[in-house]
Structure formats: C-alpha cells, structure tokens
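Much of what follows relies on a compact textual record of a protein's fold. An example makes this concrete, so a full record is given next.
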Amino acid sequence: MIMNKIHLFFPAITFLFTITIVRAETWTLPPPDIDIFGQIRTMHASSSETLLDIARQYDIGQIEILLANPNVDRWLPEDNATVILPSRYIIPQAERKGLVLNLPEMRIYYFPEPKKGEKPTVITHPVGIGRMDWVTPLGISRIIEKKKDPTWIPPKSIQMDRIANGEQPYPSIVPPGPTNPLGRHAMRLSIGSGSYLIHGTIKPFGVGMRVSAGCVRMYPEDIEALFDKVPVGTQVQVVNQPIKLGWLLDSLFIELHPALEEDESKYTNYQQIVINAINEFLLLESSKRNISIDFKIDQKILKRAIIEKSGIPVLISRSQTQLHTQNFSH
C-alpha cells in the first residue's frame, strides 16, 4: 500500500511462564565495536492461542516467529509448548542514526538522538513490507510529514489490482476511521515523490509479512509509540541484508534470513555467499581488533545456521579466549 525499558545487551535467556502483553523494549545501544543486543526468551504456549497471537503480544513479526519455531504448529500449538521469542538482534550494517529498515528481516530499528547526559538507545519493531510486485525501495530518505488519523486516497495501481483479483475497489477517498487501511498514524517518506509511508494497519496479522504495495506497515500500538518519538526530518535507511554479521567482544555471530523472493536467483548458492560475506566482514578494519590469534569459525555450527536460517543470532567463532571465559563462568 502506498502512503503502509532499558536492558543490558549481553547474552541472557529468560523463561516466561504466562502470557502478558510485552511491547517493544528500549535497549541501551552497545558501543560501536559491539553489534548485538537483546535477549532470546522462551515462554509456554496455551492451546487457546496461536503463534500469531504470541507474536503480537511480544512485538515479533509473523515470519520471524515461524522461523524461530519451525516445529510448533502456528494455528494449534500444543498446550504448554515451549515457544522461542527471537528478541535478540545483530544491528544491520548501516549508520546508527534515525530509522534503519532491513527488508529481508522485516524489522525496523530506531536510533534516537540521545539527550544530554543520557546513554544512546535503540528501539526495534517488526514491520510488513511491499510484495514482490510492489517492492519497498532501497536507499536513504527522510520523514517529511507526520499525520494522525490520516485520510487515504487509494492509488490507481491498487484499485486496478483489486479489480483484477475480483475485489471491490476502495472508495476514491477513505476517511479516517476503523476501515482506513493506514490505521491511525502515518509518516511520509521523501522517496517516490512522497508516495511511500510508514503507517499502522487494520490487519495486524500482516505485520512481519510481504503484504503491502510498497509501504511499511506496523502494529497499531508500535506506530503509535514511535509516532511521537520520531521527528520530521529523521533519516530513513532501507537496506537489503539477509546475511548479518556482528561482534560481541571477540565472539562472531551470524544472523541469517531467507532472501527476498525477487533475489532468490542470486542466492542459489546461499552457503558460498555466506562464506564470502564472512571473509569480507573479517577483512574490515573494524573487525581486526576483535580477531584473536587463535580465532576459528566453527564450520559445523555455521552449516547448521545456513540450513535453518532461523533469524536468530548464532555464535560461529571459537577461540581459546572464549573457551576460558565460558569455563570460568561455569
């Protein structure tokens, strides 16, 4: 559609035994030489809820929760089934400024300008993005307008698409209200002559999927929280990074996502592309200080990560320094 709590960043697993509404957290932004933040958590599902219900409660996208839980039925999870909440992230390779949207991940990151005396923070939310035939464009733009309770004028392309699919076209003007596909909040981007938006939705189960005509959809509660934080003029970077690599001190992590549909032909040899990406990452000047003399890639773990593409950061390096640290912690 064209117009759609502060914590440490070190490893931790928290077990949650009841469903509660958990909205997006504000995390302390790690220093420039650390690329990973958040927590992997688990909870126990009730047979009365779906994985998609759980995803919304914990601010996770639909595809995200399915990739992290391939053995859990999305519609009828077993009572007391353990569900992984994939809430740990490698920061995309982009300037840590404004909004950064990584399309294959279907997730947006916000790096607000810290106030004097405050530590830098990062906020992240799942999003829905453009379908293969209506791709959300890559590049750098800015927020040029914010509108609460927006009116929507459906583009001709969307009207024609609905007619082709045997659906009733939208009214020529859709006023604010419960039937407006933009939801209650919209932020206009400078790209595409201002025709692309970050907005809410009246179909929240589409968040974390490719469902829009190029715009960026967010859960209504997420766009409401972000709307007041993001000023007009904020930079927006849209990137395409199915392979993310990052350091946690001298430990190298990889986070893998399926490539976008339109890029699948480029990723036919996904494993070799991952290996090339690792080699290029290790040659970066910023990586040299993290590499110990006995640094090695655990090939077995890497191969499994490539097969699973779980969207969860996986530790793929081994060194004596890491082993000593782990032994000491035990």
About this structure: Residues 270-283 form the longest helix (14 residues). The two ends are 51 Å apart (CA to CA).
